[in-house]
Structures are given as C-alpha cells and as structure tokens.
Amino acid sequence: MKLLVLLLVLLFGVWLWRRGRRQADAQTDQAQRRALPMVRCAHCQLHLPGQDAVVGRQGQYCSAAHRREAEGT
Ligand SMILES: [Zn+2]
C-alpha cells in the first residue's frame, strides 16, 4: 500500500512538472510572436524594430532624415 501511494505521488509530480513545462513553452512562443522583426536602415545599415522604421519608396529607414537623404525627397 505504501508503494502505491509513493507511485501516485511520483506520477502526480511528473504530471505537474510536464504541465509546468508546457506552460513555459507556450509563454516562450507568445514572446517570440510578440517580438517584432528587425529591419535595416537602407541608408546607414542600422538595425531597428520594424515598428520604429520609416518606410520609404526604396526601403525602410531609421529616421525621416535618412529617408530624405537616400531618396532626395
Ligand atoms: Zn539610418
């Protein structure tokens, strides 16, 4: 009887451990989905998050000044 209880506790522990791992994996996936792709400024080659980039006709830039310098507009 003691052995059965021990086995149940062990199984419960493994179940908890696996459940925790699945949640950790799900959180990692969400974090990776949230992470924005990095883009490169077509003028100075600086890498920056896509949401901060200034989009021009010839590519993406780190700032409006670089877009002006590269495209002359
Ligand atoms: Zn730039």
Walk me through the topology.
Blueprint: H1 2-34, E1 38-40, E2 47-49, E3 54-56, E4 59-61, H2 64-71
Antiparallel strand pairs: 1-2, 3-4
The structure holds zinc ion (ZN).
Protein model, in words:
56% of the residues lie in helices and 16% in strands. The strands form two sheets. A two-stranded antiparallel sheet has the order 1-2. A two-stranded antiparallel sheet has the order 3-4. The radius of gyration is 25 Å and the shape is rod-shaped. It has two domains: 1-35; 36-73. The longest helix has 33 residues, at 2-34. The model has no long low-confidence stretch (mean pLDDT 89). It has helices spanning 2-34, 64-71, and strands spanning 38-40, 47-49, 54-56, 59-61. It is of the alpha+beta class and 73 residues long. Strand 3 and strand 4 form a beta hairpin. It contains two helices and four strands. Zinc ion binds next to loops.
Features:
2 domains, alpha+beta, binds zinc ion, 73 residues, two-stranded antiparallel ribbon, 4 strands, 2 helices, single chain
